[in-house]
Amino acid sequence: MPYPKKLSPAFSGALRTFSFWVANGTLGYPLLEGIDYRSDLGEEPSMLEMAYAIFANVLELDEEGVPLNAKYAEYRAAQYIRQYCDPGYSVVPAFEEWEQELYGPPEREDRKPWPPGVRKA
Fold first, then answer.
1. How far apart are CA 49 and CA 37, in angstroms?
2. Full residue range of the structural domain in which residue 20 is found
3. What is the pTM of this model?
4. Residue 109 domain flag
5. Is the pLDDT of residue 120 over 90?
C-alpha cells in the first residue's frame, strides 16, 4: 500500500515560522512595525484567515517541497494585514484574485482512521 503524501519538513518549517511571527507580532518586519495587528485578531478573525490564505496561495514549492519564496509570501500576507489595519496604506502590486482565494475546508470526518485507542473529541 503506498504511503500518503505529506508536506515536506521545509514547508512545515516555513509554516511554523510564519505562525510564530504572526503570534509574537513580528510578521513582515519592518512593514508592520508599530502596528498592533494582534489586538484586531480577536475581533476580526477573518483578517488572520485571509493572511494565512495569502501566505499559502503565494508560497511556491520546488519538486522536493522546499519553499522557493517564503519571505515574499510572508510579505504579501503582511501587506494584507497592513492594509486592513491602516486604511491609508496601498498594496503594491495590488492583490490578484488568486492570491486571496479562500478554498473550502477539509471534510468533517477524516478519511484516514485515527490510531487505535485515541478518542475523538
1. 13
2. 9-100
3. 0.92
4. no
5. no
User: What is the chain written as a DSSP string?
Assistant: -PPPP---HHHHHHHHHHHHHHHHT-TTTTTTTT--THHHHTT-HHHHHHHHHHHHHH--B-TTS-BS-HHHHHHHHHHHHHHHH-TT---SSPPPGGGG--PPPPPSS-SSPPPTTPPP-
Domain membership flag for residue 35: yes
The band of 1, judged by pLDDT with boundaries at 50, 70 and 90, is low
The residue count for the chain: 121
- Do 91 and 79 touch, CB atoms closer than 8 A? yes
> What CA–CA distance (Å, rounded) separates 119 from 99?
37
> What's the structural domain count of the chain?
1
